[in-house]
Amino acid sequence: MAKPQVIDLNTQARVPFLRGILTRSLQDAGLPFDEAYRLASDVRQELSHASAITTEQLRGAVTQHLQQQYGAAVASRYLEPAMASATVMVRTAEGQTAPFSRGQHRRTLECSGLPTGDAAALTASLYDHLVKKGTREITRARLEKLTYRYVQRAFGNEPSLRYLVWMDFLHSERPLLLLIGGTAGSGKSTIATKLAQRLENARLQSTDMLREVMRMLIPERLLPVLHTSSFNARQALPAWRKDGVDNGDLLAEGYRTQAELVSVACEAVILRALKERVSLILEGVHIQPAFLERIPNNADVVVVPVMLAILKPAQLGRLIQVRGKRVPDRRSERYLEHFDAIWNLQTFLLSEADRAGIPIVANDNEEKAIGQIMALVIEALSKGFSATPKEVFL
User: Which of 16, 172, 230, 234 could share a disulfide with 3, CB 3.0–4.6 Å?
Assistant: First the structure.
């Protein structure tokens, strides 16, 4: 699809239409990432026939979509002059300044546990307050303290405490290690991607990708179990063709064998993230309770393991079909053909997670699941927390 050129009539500058830039602008207007990306894609499709459009035409097309789908209030926030946000500058303790970002502010509130709608409304209210007061510049500490008071006044003590805990974590610059396990089709990649967007600075790594790298390095004839899917890795075991061997035990043994191999690469990725003190979201079927033992005990890191689950066979089947349509290379027919093995592997993973005390999150609703995972993060951060607002917002 050809990208139309966007012309600024004031400067005659031409730039290609960039969906990512429009998505971010829509997020700043209060839309969640998914909805902003979908609307930006609709606009791109609508304008695909044009070789060039003006900035006014682009703004008009976007505004029309916003008014039809979200109403005048959201459209008005989008239409505010591009420099409107820059009228409120946020200054860090180091003296650096940047324009107030509603999208970033909303995502911070979401990370602390507020639903997207409530976070967007509070951000808009706080920003309007600053503009009406004629605030040209505000320190980051003052902005955070003001946000804390807004949350407390609007939603009560518990949400405001969660915000306080989250801000204390951000100030500490400790890395977060979020481990998301689950069987094929449970939504690990989708959930992890959305969490990475919300956390902004977190790295995202899939164990499937690490396994693929290892497959390139190690031939199948040397390690056949590495070159199978996790749910049928048992077929590469020597005991596979022996009589009298329990099929369930073989499934678990095949999975453990492959997961143990992949854990070598996973451990390297984790150690690198800890060395650089960056947060990491590691997702994949190979995340298992035994993997937690590989994380150094002396590391100053917040570790949150989660096991995703789809608790109804029919729902898991539908999700596998949807994934096959969205990502053709991951053919749904093959997964559905081995559905019983996938379901049995999930049963094994959930049993192991329950035995190890790892939280199980039912992924029957993506936003709800993301909220539950962030709640688990806040719960982990809250252990031993005793700081006051004055100590957090220095």
Answer: 16
